[in-house]
Amino acid sequence: MHWSRQYKAATVFGEIDFIVMNRAGDVLFIEQKNGPFEEDDAGLHKRYGEERKNVADQILRAVGNLKEKFRYQCGPSARTSAAKRSRTGVPRVSNR
After folding, report:
1. Res 96: pLDDT
2. Is 84 domain-assigned?
3. In this predicted model, which residue has the larger pLDDT, 35 or 90?
4. What is the span of the domain harbouring residue 41?
5. What span, in angstroms and rounded, lies between the C-alpha atoms of 62 and 19?
6. According to the model, what pLDDT value does residue 88 have?
7. Measured between alpha carbons, how far is 66 from 14 in angstroms, rounded to an integer?
8. What is the DSSP letter of 56?
9. 94 in any annotated domain
10. What is the pLDDT of residues 36-94, one digit of tens each?
11. In degrees to the nearest 10, what's the CA dihedral of 17, 22, 25, 29?
12. Is 95 inside any structural domain?
């Protein structure tokens, strides 16, 4: 799913590979990665050429931007919850 939102004087773009929602409104964001990963004390990383990116940070950034877009479209009182990390270090997001 591609998304965009206004940020200061520019438009920010991004994407999340899969979004699954149940009838209760709980949302699961899935970021698909291909190829090898690197893991260390800082978490799980994916290398893109010379650049190394933290997978959890990528997901949290995308989820944060989607939440901002949701609040913009639904009003500032729209309810969302903070992202939580599971025991594996991968972000877990719930609307509760």
Report:
1. 45
2. yes
3. 35
4. 2-89
5. 12
6. 47
7. 9
8. H
9. no
10. 999 999 899 999 999 999 988 888 888 888 888 788 888 877 776 654 444 445 555 44
11. -20
12. no
Assigned domain for 18 exists: yes
Instruction: Choose among 77, 71, 81, 64: nearest CA to 16.
Output: 64
Q: How many domains does the chain have?
A: 1
Query: Tokens standing for 79?
Result: 């309810």
Q: DSSP letters of 39-74?
A: EETTEEEEEETTEEEEHHHHHHHHHHHHHHHHHHHH
Q: Indicate the pTM of the whole model.
A: 0.61
DSSP class of residue 36 equals -
Give the pairing type, strands 37-40 and 2-7. Answer: unpaired
Write the pLDDT tens digit of every residue in 65-74: 888 878 888 8
| Closest to 14 measured CA to CA, from 71, 83, 72, 61 | 61
Q: Which residues contact 36 (CB under 8 A, 6 or more apart)?
A: 47
Other CB atoms within 10 A of residue 1 CB: 11
